[in-house]
Amino acid sequence: MGIAAKELSLYVIRPTLAYLGQNNPNAETLLLGIAASQSNLGAALHDRRGHGLYCIREPRHAALWDNYLAQTPDLASLVRGLASQHAFLGNPHLELTVNLRYATAIAWLLIEQLHVSIPAADDIQGMARVWRQAFEPQGRLRDFANAWRSCVTPLNQVA
């Protein structure tokens, strides 16, 4: 069992996006859907597909730092501020597994660097297309939609 969708949004995704200057409910919903499809909202934080809530692969993580964040030092400093002071230097990829806010920032930046339009919160197919482009190029849109229905929809319907 993973993290409750509402709590993940409220305590991790929303504050991380706000910290990055991205107060966008659609981005929040997109990241929640990605976490659902990548790790079943944290039920599996480390597997062959990558690290953490968003299953980010080490080469993608390194490339984001080398090719995107290196070009934007203020943003890099902001993101680095989310990482553990000493652990990041020893094993930066471990931060993707143990630090939910850092992992969320990196996941958001993987999307942001693509310069894609963020779909509306009720556009599951649109979110699935962004997920596939940013995280799973071989992924099936229906897999994202199924993860959304099983992980996010029931939790949002609790009275």
TrEMBL record:
It comes from the Bacteria. This is Uncharacterized protein.
